[in-house]
Design a protein that fits this description.
The complex is a heterodimer of chains A (297) and B (233). Chain A has 11 helices and 6 strands. Chain A has a 4-stranded antiparallel beta sheet. A two-stranded antiparallel sheet of chain A has the order 5-6. In chain A, strand 5 and strand 6 form a beta hairpin. The two termini of chain A are 26 Å apart. With 233 residues, chain B is α/β, with parallel strands linked by helices. Chain B has a domain of 71 residues. Helix content of chain B is 34%, strand content 27%. In chain B, the strands form 2 sheets. A 6-stranded mixed beta sheet of chain B has the order 6-7-8-3-9-10, with helices on both faces. Chain B has a 4-stranded antiparallel beta sheet with strand order 2-1-4-5, covered by helices on one side. Classes of the chains: A alpha+beta (297), B alpha/beta (233). At the A-B interface, helix 1 and helix 8 of A face helix 2 and helix 3 of B.
C-alpha cells in the first residue's frame, strides 16, 4: 500500500535524519529540555498554590445562631430552609447544650461562670459550608432573613480580602504557566526552524524529483515529534523523581506544616503527560510550519 | 511528432524584466536540443518554465499535450515525476550515499523497495558508477557527481531530460564524458533531451539542433547547428 509505504519511509527517514544531523538535533532537544523544565516547575508551583488556596477556602464557613426561644421543631425547620438555599454544601447543627459542654471543657474559668448560671445563656448554632466561597456573603444574607435566626456571620471584610488575594495568586500563577508554554512553543519551533533552514536544499531537491508536498512534510513532522518527545524525557524524570523525593523529604508540608502539598500520585503523571504533549505537539507544529515556508503551495 | 510545443510565450518577472518574449518552438520526441545564448538571454527561464519552476506570463508551454503553465503548485510533482532534471550544481544530498541519492527519486513517489533496487542499479550502470553505490557525494569527483545526478534523473525512465548547464562546473575532458552519457541516453533510451549550455566545444562537436536565444527572443534555430553567440551577438 502506497500511503503506508510513504508513512513508513517518513518515520524511517525522520530517525535517520535525527542521527545524521546530530548536532542540530541535539540543539533542538536541549532547547526543548530546558524550556520544559521551566514549564514543569511552573506547573508544580501553580498546582500547589491553587491546592493551598482551595483547602484554605474550604475552611471558610458561615456561623448562624438561632434565637434564644427557638423550639426544636423550629430548629429542624431552619435547618431544612438553610439546606434548600442553592450553593450550600453542608449544614452542621450544634445545640446550645453541646456548646456549653465544649466551653466548659475548654476553659475552667468559663466552667465556673456557666455552672453559676441557672439557665444556658448560649444559642443553638449552625455551621454552614458553601460550594463556592464567592457565595459566602449572599448566602449569609439569605440565612439572616430566615425566621428565628439571630445572626449569621462569616468573618465579613477579612474573608473578602483573603478571597481577593487568592484570586490574584491564582490568576498570576496560571498566567505564568500560559506565558511559559507560549514561550516554550516559540523557542522549540524556532530551533526546529533553524534545523530545517539548514536543510532547505534537501526540500528543494525533494520538490525537483517529484515529491508531493505531503511526502516532503511528513518526515519533518515526524522529526519534530521525535525531537519534542526526546526533549521531554529529562523534564519528566526531574518532575517525577524530584517531586516525589521533595514531597517525602518535606513530609508533604511546607512552612512547619501550615501549607500542605499536593499528593505526588497521580499529580506527577498528569504533569508528565502535559510535558510530553507540549514537547511533541509543539515539535510537530513547529516543523510543519517551518517546512511550509520552503514549499510552494 | 511534436513533443514540446511553445507558442507565443512571454515571461515577465515581477521586477519588470522580460526574460522571454514571443517565443515559439516545437521539439519532437527523441530530439537532442541545445539551448544557447549569452547570460540573461532567457536560457534558464526557458528551462525553468519546462519543469514548471516558473509559469509563462502569456502564451502556452505544452509537454506531451499537457499545458505546463496551467499546472497548480500543489500538483507540480506529478509533472516532475515524468521529467528528469540535471543541474549545474548537481543538487545531490550530501548525507545520502550514491545509491540512496538515486533511490530517493523513486522513494519520493512511493515505489516498492523491491522495485527500486534493480532500477537504481540499472541507472547507475548506465552512467558507469555501479561500483560507487556506497560512496558519499563528497568522495566523488565533479564528473562522477554529475553522473549520479544524471542517474537520478533517468531512474524513473522519463520521456524528457532537462539539463541546465550540466557541464558548467566540469573540465573539458569530464564534460565530454558527460556528453557521451547523455548522447547514449538519447540514442538508446529514446529520451528527448533539452540542454542549456555555455560550452562552445561541446555544441560544435555534437552537431545537434541548436536554439539560440538573445534577450529572450528566438535568434536562431538550426538543425545540426554550431555555437555562434560570439560572432553574432
Amino acid at each position: 500500500m502506497k500511503p503506508f509505504r510513504i508513512i513508513y519511509r517518513s518515520i524511517r527517514d525522520s530517525f535517520k535524519s535525527v542521527l545524521r544531523n546530530f548536532s542540530l538535533s541535539m540543539a533542538s532537544i536541549i532547547c526543548t529540555t530546558i524550556t520544559l523544565i521551566l514549564v514543569a516547575l511552573a506547573i508544580i508551583v501553580t498546582v500547589n498554590v491553587n491546592y493551598v488556596t482551595k483547602t484554605m477556602e474550604e475552611e471558610l464557613t458561615i456561623v448562624a445562631y438561632a434565637n434564644k426561644e427557638t423550639t426544636s421543631d423550629e430548629i429542624n425547620e431552619i435547618e431544612t430552609k438553610i439546606k434548600n438555599i442553592s450553593g450550600v454544601k453542608e449544614v452542621v447543627y450544634k445545640s446550645k447544650e453541646e456548646w456549653r459542654v465544649e466551653m466548659k471543657n475548654n476553659s475552667p474559668t468559663l466552667k465556673v461562670t456557666l455552672d453559676y448560671l441557672e439557665s444556658n445563656p448560649l444559642l443553638d448554632s449552625f455551621v454552614i459550608t458553601v460550594e463556592d466561597v464567592e457565595d459566602l456573603a449572599p448566602t449569609a444574607r439569605l440565612i439572616r432573613e430566615i425566621e428565628h435566626i439571630e445572626s449569621a456571620s462569616y468573618g465579613e471584610g477579612m474573608v473578602e480580602e483573603i478571597i481577593g488575594v487568592f484570586n490574584i495568586i491564582k490568576t498570576v500563577t496560571i498566567a505564568i504557566v500560559i506565558a511559559l508554554v507560549v514561550v516554550t512553543a516559540f523557542l522549540i519551533s524556532n530551533t526546529i526552524k533553524l534545523t530545517i533552514f539548514s536543510r532547505r536544499s534537501e526540500i528543494e531537491i525533494m520538490r525537483l524529483v517529484g515529491s508531493s508536498n505531503i511526502s516532503i512534510k511528513l518526515p519533518f513532522v515526524f522529526e519534530g515529534f521525535l525531537l519534542g518527545l526526546v526533549g521531554s524525557f529529562i523534564p519528566i524524570i526531574i518532575t517525577v523523581y524530584g517531586y516525589i523525593i521533595a514531597y517525602e523529604k518535606l513530609g508533604g508540608t511546607v512552612s512547619f506544616g501550615v501549607i500542605e502539598l499536593v499528593n505526588p500520585m497521580p499529580f506527577v503523571l498528569y504533569t508528565s503527560i502535559v510535558l510530553v504533549v507540549i514537547g511533541s505537539v509543539v515539535g510537530m507544529i513547529g516543523s510543519a510550519r517551518a517546512v511550509r515556508k520552503y514549499l510552494k503551495i | 511528432m511534436k513533443f514540446i510545443q511553445i507558442k507565443n510565450c512571454y515571461k515577465v518577472y515581477k521586477n519588470g524584466v522580460t526574460a522571454i518574449a514571443d517565443l515559439s518552438l516545437d521539439i519532437n520526441k527523441g530530439e537532442f536540443v541545445f539551448v544557447i545564448g549569452a547570460s540573461g538571454s532567457g536560457k534558464s527561464t526557458l528551462i525553468k518554465m519546462l519543469y514548471r519552476e516558473e509559469k509563462p506570463t502569456k502564451g502556452i508551454v505544452e509537454i506531451g499535450g499537457i499545458n505546463v503553465g496551467k499546472i497548480r503548485n500543489r500538483t507540480v510533482y506529478k509533472l516532475r515525476r515524468k521529467l528528469g532534471i540535471v543541474f549545474q550544481d548537481f543538487k545531490l544530498l550530501p548525507k545520502l550515499t550514491v545509491y540512496e541519492n538515486v533511490a530517493f527519486a523513486l522513494e519520493c513517489i512511493g515505489m516498492k523497495s523491491s522495485e527500486i533496487r534493480p532500477k537504481v542499479l540499472k541507472a547507475l550502470e548506465h552512467v558507469g558508477l555501479k561500483e560507487k553505490v556506497r560512496s558519499f557525494p563528497n568522495e566523488l569527483s565533479g564528473g562522477e557527481q554529475q553522473r549520479v545526478c544524471i542517474a537520478r534523473a533517468i531512474v524513473n525512465d522519463p520521456k524528457l531530460l532537462i539539463c541546465d548547464e550540466p557541464t558548467g562546473n566540469l573540465d573539458p575532458k569530464t564534460s565530454q564524458e558527460i556528453m557521451n552519457v547523455l548522447d547514449d541516453i538519447n540514442k538508446n533510451l529514446g529520451t528527448t533531451i533539452i540542454m542549456a549550455t555555455h560550452d562552445k566545444d561541446i555544441v560544435n562537436k555534437m552537431k545537434k539542433r541548436v536554439i539560440t536565444l538573445d534577450s529572450g527572443v528566438l535568434f536562431e534555430d538550426h538543425e545540426k547547428g554550431s555555437f555562434k553567440i560570439s560572432e553574432t551577438i
